[in-house]
Design brief:
The chain is mainly beta. It has 2 helices and 7 strands, in the order H-E-E-E-E-E-E-E-H. Strands 1, 2, 3, 4, 5, 6 and 7 form a 7-stranded antiparallel sheet that branches. Strand 1 and strand 2 form a beta hairpin. The model has no long low-confidence stretch (mean pLDDT about 85).
């Protein structure tokens, strides 16, 4: 709760840990679970991004390379296959996988689908800057003016 929400600790108080989500309750017992993002971290001032994602049976995250961010992927329910440059890796409930930045990967859901949590450093927001900022960046990278 922030000061503007009536937090009696005031605006300078340190943030407090909070329970954000019960992932077990996101999983639909005995039925077809919704597909897509079931939950995402959206707290202001955070340094991380996190999502709980559900892929239906045979669903896929296409092959891609993440150039900037390391990602942790934790399988919460179901099975999947991780395809990477070194082959296919089966993932089952409880599998914790590190996807280092620069790695190429794809995820294919198993026959009952898969629900997983991803966590990574938050991407900085886009900022509008004056045109001369691009020139300064090019010079700092050795690209001249």
């Amino acid at each position: 709760m922030a000061a503007e929400d009536g937090d009696p600790r005031g605006p300078a108080a340190p943030p407090l840990p909070r329970v954000l989500c019960d992932t077990a309750r996101l999983l639909s017992p005995g039925g077809e679970a919704a597909a897509g993002v079931l939950w995402k971290l959206a707290e202001p001032g955070r340094q991380l991004d996190a999502n709980v994602v559900r892929l239906p049976a045979g669903g896929r995250v296409d092959t891609h390379t993440e150039p900037d961010l390391d990602v942790l992927l934790l399988v919460l329910d179901g099975t999947a296959r991780l395809d990477s440059a070194d082959g296919e890796h089966p993932l089952c409930t409880g599998a914790l996988t590190w996807l280092p930045h620069g790695s190429t990967r794809a995820v294919l859901a198993g026959p009952d689908g898969v629900t997983y949590l991803t966590v990574h450093r938050r991407r900085p927001g886009l900022r509008i800057q004056p045109p001369e900022a691009a020139d300064r960046l090019r010079r700092s990278l050795g690209g001249g003016a």
